[in-house]
Fold:
Amino acid sequence: MDIGIVMPIYNQVPAYLRLALQSILSQNYRHFRLIIVLDGANRPTQQIAQHFAKRDPRVSILRKAKNQGIASALNDGFTFLNKMPSIRYLTWVSSDNIYYPSFLRTLRQGMIKAPAKVGLVYSSYRYIDAKGKPMYSPAFYQQLRQRQRLHKRHLLQHCFIGASFLYRKAVAQKVGKYRLTPVEDYDYWLRMSEICDIRYLSPVLMAYRHRSPQSVSTELESPEGKIRFQRALQRALREARNRRGIAHHEISQGEMQVEATLPSEDNKTM
Structure:
């Protein structure tokens, strides 16, 4: 078992959660551990998680009595995985997204083939709607794909890593813990890119369910959510610029680009 996966769950649409878990357990690379963190989850969500854990010994469940947010749940999950000497690579997934069968195998091979200085590999993925149908036009994905090929220095303008990724445990231990919900992933990529290179892989390896009831994007549509996003985003950017010795300027939510992409012919190391 050399890959560790964390799935933080608060409450989730049962059908979405079942699909997400089944997509992980159906991977054609089977040497992984899945840590489900029930972050104050309701009873139906707990029952689904328990059902899958009983069926597969690779699945473990951590329970938090009260919801403490994604960053806290991720940190608990990765703390658990970091105690396993065999785990070399880490990733995490939202409980409504779907891995395609070769997700783990492709990212793992990409990491193995990459130079040692590459600490993170990430790939293309597709948006799907609430019914699981593909979203957006080829032109939309072409534009996003171009951004996802950008050099890591452009992470200050575009959060282009997306939801399909794998990184080295040794690098993660240097980066530290997740923080600054709801931009915990973006803040983490900024910090990680300062100590390692990143590499884009072209295959489409997962489906990202856009604007599902429990998604972060849905939460951020409220006035309170937008304020919370802005505060966390500005702090992440301000601290990243300070670490890099770059003057900071405030940006609006609309200026920050969160990217997905479809395949291209090239792999690129940054």
Notes: The domain at 3-269 is CATH 3.90.550.10 (Spore Coat Polysaccharide Biosynthesis Protein SpsA; Chain A).
